[in-house]
Automatic annotation (TrEMBL):
This is Cytochrome P450. Keywords: Heme, Iron, Metal-binding, Monooxygenase, Oxidoreductase. The keyword DNA damage does not apply. PROSITE patterns: CYTOCHROME_P450. InterPro entries: Cyt_P450 (IPR001128), Cyt_P450_CS (IPR017972), Cyt_P450_E_grp-I (IPR002401), Cyt_P450_sf (IPR036396). The keyword Cytoplasm does not apply. It comes from Coccomyxa subellipsoidea.
Length: 489
């Protein structure tokens, strides 16, 4: 069984070139001794070796192998070297990290052991005021402020928008009957983003528009930054400007009419942490909404897994249906309703485990330090694979019960013998540390609402319930994840 991890490019976009890595040897035989920095263990560091692996050929490293072998590049190395190994790809010597304790340590030590890395074009394509590019105290202050716009309380006010968007797409799917689950889930994700983040109608037209702009914008990270007419980079800059114009038009509309509920509206009420009493300016708002859009790109594939795993006849669907019949057979969805649905929430946790919103995070070592008994040299890239650690539990099997261990329900007793930890601390779908995903509450609520609306009112079948996903160069089902016989119950 294999699973997806985004390896990315230091030269362009570090989040959307994908490599598949085998889960069978996630736990290496090395004994983990935690992380020690060069400031307090210089003698130990001098005696430590680099992780196993190869730096490949001069200059190009193993980049050609990555491009030629695709999925098998990471699978071969992970099987050969285990939970931590070295390579040289895309112009940078790199440490690949899969051990869970090591992942957590690296992410928590940002600013001391590691720093975030982004390609040079990020300032142009995302924006210099985005959280992506802010560092240190400036980043922490801005994130605390923006956190109010995406908080659990803010998301609770968006539940009607989430439910309306889910109903709108389910009704469309019932009219279609058969469709590509992958494509339609992508449109749902962007319509949901438009409704909840921008305060626009959560409809198909908005989903298609935002999906197109996002695809064009992200292509700018995968090409040379050459500003020629009709070049991919110029098209990406045009898409970025179109998104900024859309945001500014919506700000103008919100300021001239009675407001509803959206993250954008919440941001308009926030104060700039660098100036006393002044509101966030438009550049700060648009840059950070565009940054949030990058994270939202993973929500579509994650939602597609809901269709794949909850099709007609699946055991998980039956248990979700029974729980909804007992605790939420009808009526509007609220945070209190969602809290009464442990198995439904476990399904969402498991979907996120298999398809994490933030599969990999990218850092650069600020100093030599020890990781899993090996030395990480200063200046090297460190790729932290946040979803990989949980893949060791039953490999890649879909088992929501793993998150219910100890809850005492007779329906879920399998968890007691599964050997899987039943705590969210064993998964990192949104990252960890000071750069944990800002939209995590929104995405999780959106996926939960979609599950409930789907199972409450609709049934469907998968043309191939076991369809495999390709992961290089992009994550997508190999045959489009065809849904059939989608109808209202």
């Amino acid at each position: 069984m294999t699973f997806t991890r985004e390896v990315g490019t230091l030269l362009h976009r570090p989040a959307y070139v994908h490599v598949t890595l085998s889960s069978r040897k996630i736990l290496a035989s090395r004994k983990h001794r935690g992380c020690r920095s060069s400031t307090n263990s210089q003698v130990d560091l001098c005696n430590l070796e680099l992780p196993a692996g190869s730096l490949g050929l001069p200059l190009i490293g193993e980049t050609l192998n990555l491009l030629l072998k695709g999925d098998s590049f990471g699978a071969d190395r992970n099987a050969r070297y285990g939970a931590i190994w070295k390579t040289n790809i895309l112009g940078s010597p790199t440490i690949m990290v899969f051990d869970e304790a090591a992942c957590r340590k690296v992410l928590k030590e940002e600013g001391r052991l590691v720093e975030v890395i982004w390609p040079d074009v990020t300032a142009d394509l995302v924006g210099p005021a985005s959280l992506n590019l802010l560092k240190g105290e400036e980043h922490l202050r801005m994130k605390r402020v923006l956190g109010e716009a995406f908080s659990e309380q803010a998301v609770a006010a968006l539940m009607p928008e989430l439910e309306a968007c889910a109903h709108s797409f389910c009704q469309r799917w019932a009219q279609l009957g058969s469709f590509s689950g992958y494509e339609e889930s992508k449109y749902w994700a962007w319509a949901m983003f438009g409704a909840t983040v921008l305060g626009m109608p959560g409809q198909l037209s908005m989903g298609r528009k935002l999906a197109r702009l996002n695809d064009e914008l992200q292509s700018g990270f995968q090409t040379l930054p050459v500003k020629l007419p009709a070049s991919p980079y110029s098209r990406a800059l045009a898409a970025r400007q179109a998104m900024a114009d859309l945001i500014n038009q919506q700000i103008d509309a919100l300021q001239s009419q009675e407001r509803g509920h959206s993250c954008l509206e919440n941001m308009l009420a926030l104060e700039d942490p660098s100036s006393s009493g002044s509101p966030l300016n438009r550049h700060q708002i648009s840059d950070n909404i565009i940054a949030a859009a990058f994270g939202n790109a993973s929500a579509g594939p994650t939602a597609a897994k809901i269709l794949q795993y909850l099709g007609a006849g699946s055991r998980a669907r039956g248990l979700v249906s029974a729980e909804l019949a007992a605790h939420a057979p009808h009526g509007p969805l609220t945070p209190a309703v969602l809290d009464r649905l442990p198995y439904t929430n476990a399904v969402v946790q498991e979907i996120l485990r298999i398809t994490p919103i933030v599969p990999a995070l990218f850092r650069r070592a600020l100093q030599d330090f020890e990781l899993c008994g090996c030395r990480v040299p200063k200046g090297w890239s460190v790729y932290v694979h946040t979803g990989a650690s949980t893949q060791q539990y039953n490999q890649d099997s879909f088992q929501p019960e793993r998150w219910l261990q100890g809850q005492g329900s007779d329906s879920f007793q399998e968890a007691a013998s599964s050997g899987c930890p039943a705590a969210t601390e064993y998964m990192l779908p949104f990252g960890l540390g000071p750069r944990m995903c800002l939209g995590r509450h929104l995405v999780k609520a959106a996926l939960t609402v979609l599950v409930i609306v789907l199972v409450r009112g609709y049934s469907w079948q998968m043309e191939d319930p076991e369809e495999q996903w390709s992961v290089f160069p992009t994550v997508q089902p190999k045959q489009g994840l065809e849904v059939t016989s989608f109808r209202k119950q």
